[in-house]
Amino acid sequence: MTTEATGRQQLLARWAGQPAQTLLAALGVDPATQLTLPGLLERSVARFADAPAIVTPTTSTSYAELAHRSAAFAHLLAELHPQDGARVALLLPNGPQFVVALHGAARAGAASVLLNSFGTAAEISGCLERSGARLLVTTSRLAPELLEFVRALAGIDSLVSVGLQVYPVGKRIGFIDWVVVLDDDAVLDREPAPERAAVGPEQDAALLFTSGSTGMPKAVLHSHRAICLQSYRYSDLLRLTPDDRLMSLSPYFWSSGLCKSLGAALSSGATLLAMPRFNAESALAFLERERATKLISPVHLDHQMVSHPKFGDLDLSALRGVHRRSPLRDALGITERWSPGGYGLSEMCTLVSSFPADIDPEQVAGSEGWVVPGAEVKVTDPDTEQTVPFGEVGRICVRGDSLMIRYDDQPLPFDEEGFFPTSDLGLLDEEGRLYFRGRADSVIRSGGTNVSPVEVENALTGWHRLRRVAAVAVPHPDRGEVLILCAVPADDTVDEAEVTAYLRTLLSGYKVPRRVVLVDESRLKFTPTHKVDLGHARRIVIHELLDREGDPAWLELLTGALE
Question: Which positions fall inside the AMP-binding enzyme C-terminal domain (predicted)?
Answer without folding.
Answer: 455-521
